[in-house]
């Protein structure tokens, strides 16, 4: 009798241990509510990566267009300032060329589909135009050309960076069309700077 007692006690303890350690053959099914809870904690960037990438690209391109419009506005203002104040025919000629090209560039950027979607709070001006307003004669000529060499080089750098990153066909074509013209302006400005020194 004692042997039978210990035998059945051993079987009972073994069965209890299997259940308590998850050894039961019956597994709990995941409920829809459990699935929903897991889904809600999944990083969204792993669920819809393509949509997020496209949205991010759209925002970047809209911001580039907004920045390009503002830099074109400032360039137009700087060119008009030189046309009004310079005493050197070569400076006036360069300013007129820059004015004409950037007015067209401004109009072209306004036609793009993302126009108006970017942040326009950033102003592409460093305050130098206000300083140039106070100068006259030789001082103005030299300082204006110096300012434009730096300013135009910065625009070229932004356009070259954008040309390799933009996805929108229209924006990319406009940037690639503008770059050679901007580089011609840069050569003219640097040549003029050398002559004025």
Explain the overall architecture:
The structure is a single chain. The protein has 197 residues and is mainly α. It has a single domain, classed as Ferritin (Up-down Bundle), CATH 1.20.1260.10. 78% of the residues lie in helices and 0% in strands. It starts with a helix and ends with a helix. Residues 15-56 have low confidence and may be disordered. Residues 60-190 form the DUF4142 domain. InterPro entries: DUF4142, Ferritin-like. It comes from Paraflavitalea soli.
Question: What's the CATH architecture?
Answer: Up-down Bundle
Average residue-wise pLDDT: 75
Structural class: mainly alpha
User: What is the helix tally?
Assistant: 8
Q: What amount of the residues lies in strands?
A: under 5%
End-to-end CA span: 118 Å
Order of helices and strands: HHHHHHHH
| CATH fold naming | Ferritin
CATH homology-level superfamily: Ferritin, core subunit, four-helix bundle
Largest beta-sheet characterization: none
- The CATH class: Mainly Alpha
Q: Which consecutive residue ranges, at least 5 long each, have pLDDT under 50?
A: 15-56
Shape: elongated
The residue fraction in helices comes out at over 70%
Number of strands: 0
Radius of gyration: 34 Å
- How many domains, as an integer? 1
